[in-house]
Amino acid sequence: MAFPITRLRRLRRTEELRNLVRETRLTPDSFVYPMFVCPGEGVRKEIRSMPGVFNFSVDEAVKEAREVHSLGVPSVILFGLPDKKDEVATGAWAENGIVQQAARAMKREVPGLILMGDVCLCEYMSHGHCGVVKAAPQSLGAAVVTPPIATTEYEIVNDATLELLATTSVSLTRAGIDIIAPSDMMDGRVAAIRKALDESGFLNTPILSYAAKFASGFYGPFREAADSAPQFGDRRSYQMDGANLREAMREIEADIEEGADMIMVKPAMPYLDVIAAARARFDLPLGAYQVSGEYAMIEAAARNGWIERDRVMLESLVSIRRAGASIILTYYAKDAARLLG
Ligand code: PBG
After folding, report:
1. 107 carries an active-site annotation
2. What are φ and ψ of residue 209, in 5° steps?
3. 240-262 residue pLDDT tens
4. Per 3-state DSSP, what percentage of the chain is helix, strand, and coil (rounded to 5)?
5. 140 pLDDT above the threshold of 50
6. pLDDT for res 280
7. Is residue 292 within a helix (H) or strand (E), and if so which, with residue range?
8. Which of 63, 77, 142, 215 is the 20 to 30 A CA-CA neighbour of 32?
9. Which residues sit with their C-beta closer than 6 Å to ligand 1?
């Protein structure tokens, strides 16, 4: 027997009913706001490909952090634009590095805000890769090749990179970063970072691992924001192939075994299936990063009058939540919090 036509539509008749039966709720307390900190004073420079997102000097970053917190967003993740780049990413682990400065100031001025530190080397390396670059394979261990072109001419050296990541993590924690978030995709980084944190007495500092981070075209605008595009080659020898779901599960499993406290999938919208699979399989808090390209696409279409910005913003965030992420890193954190508040 056929159901009456209204069977499923009864509960959709009014906003009150729809609200009552809504399965997924967005709240600002699951948002993390990414911020880019640069040298100088009074700097608030809009990123061309990410309208509404800025490079902030430390003083301006503190003001922004205060606003983020007052909107009910509990956390920011910090990225740095150093004044100098080199081949050992000094700016990432220097005691007075730009993120270290920002972390100290934010901890002092906005103490309730959870500070996440993105741990990666690409922003601090002259070549823009996430790890140490050496000539490969015959001359491994030799001087850095500048500038190698073919992928066969160089290698991103895993274990030398781990040492720098571990040093960076300790330095950031010392400066006041609360959660260490490695995004480099080297093998064994979580174990190396955990060990270094423990040995430095930071037993209570959690690690949020970018466990399944895909080599994605959606990072384009970020590389402008953080000035971190690789000068040669690409990131496919360390970030994951977008076609691989089972490998993503192995990556996450490895990070959990190494001591990750929370895991993350990145990007979000093109990888909702990965988020859902991770949710079903692992019981750690699960994050997802709605990346720069996802943000830029919505902004560009909205600016052309092709979509309704706020509606699409919230729909994209609900989809990430529905897929199973409990923590959402998004450039929309402030705007969405305003709409939801
Ligand atoms: C650093 C890093 C990147 C992003 C976060 N951390 C860039 C990359 O891997 O190239 C991208 C974030 C975004 O696109 O919003 N490795």
Report:
1. no
2. -90, 130
3. 999 999 999 999 999 999 999 99
4. 45, 20, 35
5. no
6. 98
7. helix 292-303
8. 215
9. 118, 120, 122, 130, 183, 219, 222-223, 235, 291-292
